[in-house]
């Protein structure tokens, strides 16, 4: 079926079920185009909490749909592709968090949003790539536990001056972006500003003009006078950046920065999920209750 006819069917079923479609900035362009909202995981979870819709179709990876469910437990949250998992989120388990807490009594745990609901439930604070320095600053101890991304932990330790205990996680998509890729693009586009995501290795962050989340990149791309940008994150973001800023130019830092999990959701799967209302995200009540606390604390700080 052509994209237009799938989109028309999706629109009909959305109305029938009073559904809303949320799509992460890394989704395929055609999926972003049928979404009611696109954004980063936190922005989308907040949209999920605000909406009057009864059904939320979350096009992203599982931890994002879980965050939406935690903030809107009374709504039906559906993920069109339940095998869209985040390998970084899978690199830390609740047992490991409990062990870190036992080995470091009194040290607060900050969980990156890329964690499962069960891991958030063991944590004191949540943070995203746009507010990790703010959250770490708010926590008054000299030592903090930050999980699971070791590259973000290294950045956090340098920027905050705190001792950061971490795990061994990393995002394999962001790890593909190397300093030489940025240097090559800077040579080709000497006027371009470099926007990098904090999941990149530190040597890449050292070449950045701005280090921020995808939501932050969208804001800076709009508000800055610069006309050209080198973008060091998953390349799905470029679609939205180009669409929102037709007069500006965006270059990927590396053509290979593509997350296979983010590309698993297509229009056919969105249509199927609206037809069947299958793949509902469910979480135990106690996990929802405990995981909400670190997220709420983050929202109060940000
Ligand atoms: O929080 C998100 O949405 C992620 C994983 C990346 C970003 O910076 O938007």
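^ Assign residues to that structure.
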């Amino acid at each position: 079926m052509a994209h237009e006819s799938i989109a028309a069917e999706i629109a009909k079923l959305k109305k029938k079920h009073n559904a809303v479609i949320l799509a992460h900035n890394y989704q395929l362009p055609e999926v972003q185009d049928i979404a009611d909202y696109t954004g980063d995981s936190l922005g989308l979870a907040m949209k999920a909490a605000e909406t009057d819709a009864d059904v939320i179709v979350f096009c992203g990876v599982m931890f994002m749909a879980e965050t939406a469910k935690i903030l809107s437990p009374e709504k039906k949250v559906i993920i069109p592709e339940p095998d869209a998992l985040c390998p970084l989120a899978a690199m830390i388990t609740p047992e490991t968090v409990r062990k870190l807490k036992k080995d470091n009594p009194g040290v607060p745990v900050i969980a990156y949003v890329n964690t499962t609901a069960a891991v958030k439930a063991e944590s004191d604070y949540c943070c995203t790539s746009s507010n990790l320095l703010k959250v770490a600053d708010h926590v008054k101890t000299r030592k903090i536990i930050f999980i699971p991304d070791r590259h973000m932990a290294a950045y956090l330790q340098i920027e905050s001056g705190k001792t950061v205990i971490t795990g061994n996680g990393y995002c394999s998509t962001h790890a593909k972006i190397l300093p030489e890729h940025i240097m090559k693009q800077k040579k080709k586009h000497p006027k371009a500003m470099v926007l990098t995501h904090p999941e990149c290795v530190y040597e890449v962050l050292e070449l950045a003009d701005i280090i921020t989340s995808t939501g932050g990149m969208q804001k800076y791309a709009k508000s800055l006078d610069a006309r050209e940008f080198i973008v060091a994150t998953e390349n799905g973001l470029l679609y939205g950046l180009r669409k929102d800023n037709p007069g500006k130019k965006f270059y990927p830092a590396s053509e290979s920065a593509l997350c296979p999990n983010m590309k698993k959701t297509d229009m056919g799967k969105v249509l199927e999920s609206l037809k069947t209302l299958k793949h509902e995200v469910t979480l135990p009540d106690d996990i929802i209750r405990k995981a909400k606390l670190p997220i709420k604390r983050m929202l109060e700080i940000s």
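The mean pLDDT is 96.
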